[in-house]
Amino acid sequence: MSDLSANWLLRPARVHLIGVGGVGMAGVARLLRQAGFDLSGSDMAPNRLTETFQAEGGRFFQGHAVAHLDGDVVWAVRTPAVGEDNPEVAALRARHVPVFARGDVLAAFTRQRRSLAVAGAHGKTTTSAMLVHLLRKAGIACGYAIGGETDFPGRVGDAGTSPLFVCEADESDGTLVQYAPEIGVLTHVEWDHVERFSSEAALLRCYRAFAARCGTLVVRADDALAMEIAADHPRVIRVGNDAKLLSAQSDPGGQEMNVEIGGNLHGVRLPLPGLHQAWNALLAMTAAHACGVSAFDLSDFVSVGRRFERHQVSGVTVIHDYAHHPTEVRALMDSVRALGGRRVVAAFQPHRYSRTRHLLEGFADAFRGVDALHLLPVYAASEGRDRGVDSDALAVCCRKRNPALAVRYHPARPELVEAVMKELGPEDIFMVVGAGDILMVVPMILAQLKEKEVSHA
Fold first, then answer.
1. Do 203 and 128 fall into the same domain?
2. 200 pLDDT band (50/70/90 cuts)?
3. Between the N and C ends of the chain, which has fewer C-beta atoms within 10 Å?
4. Which of 101, 123, 149 is where one domain is finished?
5. Cα 145 from Cα 176, distance rounded (Å)
6. Average per-residue pLDDT in the chain?
7. What is the pLDDT of residues 50-73, one digit of tens each?
8. What CATH number is given to the structural domain containing 138?
9. The predicted structure's pLDDT at residue 1
10. What are the b/e assignments for 217-249, b being 16+ CB within 10 Å?
């Protein structure tokens, strides 16, 4: 466990952020800036988040090098995607400058506030954003830090003016055990992050440590592992029992929900299709209700970036989603089916070699219903190729388990985009799926679709 106490955050100092272009790191950076810290940061390439970081006073360096560090750095923060062999991390360690994980800092922030922490294998980003939306609609200007770009002030993080603070608490690096929220939400429990947790039991120990530190724990009653973790907790709200989803009817624009919370019935319009989104919304509403909120308006909720993000160009619907686990891909497919019986083309980039090997058959099955699947090489996220398998193995597995599915492997994005553009037709749905840099396919496809639209006008 980190020795970063909340008191460190009361003493503004010179801090360096390694991997500041990541969405989680960008949120931490903004909170530190708002607290008066003098910041610098580095990442392999500039992006929209690093541009904002610079515009708000941070010094950005492209690449990772010892030259980016000066003698004034008091402590540093690193993204989970950066290991101990990173040159900046190694240099700071050699100087005995503390280097904390992103989760260390975020957990310390939550200990300064009345915090609500959303954890779980799937859905925590969207659930966190829905919770912030509901609180702010109720006039509670809560602070937040979420692992996705939102339409709230600050987009990825904001101190707010209320004592309440909502955060997405990530289990992937083990820092989940440091949170001690007034209200904890456990969206779903499933074994993942095999690069850190060698067994399901090891992961469950992490979740149990988190649950034990929550004042109130909100869990799904239909999630066996979540209920097992909550079994001995003195104050549990079971979503599905104590709060109920009475009905959810999806349509292309979202869904109509009927729920019962605190003994009262509510009709709620959610502009996202899919049953999993209805459950995410009910988790958020239940946590908001525990904070005193009694009215639940999600009708104008704007989805978090890379979470069922939709674009419509030249008759083609392009859907961008962060799904990187078979359970998430299956949920995404359910939402896509709600859009109607249309031809579906998907592009997928697996995240981490170890996860791809561990969940190979699950991924192959998750894409059932897709008419064509295009694969990019695995996004390594600091792993070596020897830790698992690449996308060529997934292509073989997909063909074996789904003989009717057209599967193609592409070594790089330009080849994938060229192949996809040759087969996309009007009214098709094109899904861009994965947590890595496959996001760069989206503007490439949109630009070519717009060009095609203009040329046919």
1. yes
2. confident
3. C
4. 101
5. 14
6. 93
7. 999 999 999 999 999 999 999 999
8. 3.40.1190.10
9. 36
10. bbbbbebebbbebbeebeebbbbbebbbbeebe
